[in-house]
Amino acid sequence: MNYVAPWWLPGGNLQTIWPALYARRSHGPRPEYRRERWLAPDGDFVDVDWLADAGGAESFDRLRTGPAETRPSTSSGRTDGEPLLVLFHGLEGSSRSHYAEAFADYAREHGMAFAVPHFRGCSGELNHAPRAYHSGDHEEIGWMLRRLREQHAGAIVAVGVSLGGNALLRWAAEAGDGAARSVSAVAAVCSPVDLAAGGWAIGRGFNRLVYTTMFMRTMKPKALAKLAQHPGLFDRERLVAARDLRDFDDLFTAPLHGFRDADDYYARASAKPHLHRIRVPALVLNARNDPFVPAWSLPGDREVGANVTLWQPAQGGHVGFPDGHLPGHVRRMPDEVGGWLRSAADLR
């Protein structure tokens, strides 16, 4: 990816914050979604938003009614034969994140169906089970992709953003040759494939003051609501006292999902040590000025297998990659990543 940021938006922090808040997300109208609710194997639910004005989503209109925010459906069905682009969002993201709407716009332009399976608790409604989601949740990714494969007759490509990208790469590594039964190609965008390095970076200085505060503002209330659902799940006072993501992961994320503590979680969930095991075409895109992901932690060519392509432009921030004149737009990255996925999957 030969990316250079606009002159008026220098530095990794501005290239992260401005695109998320102010840049245009689509060339056309804002994407509209239709929601489908799936029953998970453990009896819980996940919500999947389908792009309503793409061919694949339209075939679901007879199964679903109303906008995603109001009337979720429990129905399922098969789409037609057009390619499907699946997006796995980042920490506390959703189908309304700036990058999700930009990828939806890309899919619409290229005649692709588009789906955003929400991680548990991220669709606007608290899930029922004690578990939530985490950066190495490859079992959940695998179940979602198998379900999509059952419903969709055409080719499937998947992109994961930040946390979702790390989880997607972990799934691809675990699935090995079997990954090709679900997807033709995958991409990870600005993913902290070394979770310990990412946790260190976001817990320091400006990052701690701004980004950590932003995430904790939504994560703590969700965790406390989960405690109200399941009394005794964790120590409430420790959760209230948590000041950074490491504290939160040590108390909540790690033990709820089978890890001993935050260190164990970061070590076992990180995708970087497993990139050489991936057997489907995979793109790993990271800006070297990403405030969340230190450049020194990024994988090198010798740390990945033949199926993995590394893009590491000097600029872009965290899921930013703004382009154009003020206020700019965020379609540049989806265009490049979507083009790579279509080429890798041999989609015309």
Could you describe the 3D structure shown?
The chain contains eleven helices and eight strands. With 348 residues, it is α/β, with parallel strands linked by helices. The protein has two domains: 12-194 and 271-344, Alpha/Beta hydrolase fold, catalytic domain (Rossmann fold, 3-Layer(aba) Sandwich); 196-269, no CATH class. It has an eight-stranded mixed beta sheet, with helices on both faces. Strand 1 and strand 2 form a beta hairpin. It is globular, with a radius of gyration of 19 Å. It starts with 11 loop residues before the first helix and ends with a helix.
The assigned CATH architecture of the largest domain is 3-Layer(aba) Sandwich
**Which regions are unreliable across 5 or more consecutive residues at pLDDT < 50?**
55-78
According to CATH, the homologous superfamily of the largest domain is Alpha/Beta hydrolase fold, catalytic domain
Q: How would you classify the helix and strand content by structural class?
A: alpha/beta
- The CATH class of the largest domain is Alpha Beta
Radius of gyration: 19 Å
SSE string, helices as H and strands as E: HEEHEHEHEHEHHHHHEEH
How many individual domains? 2
Largest sheet: 8 strands, mixed
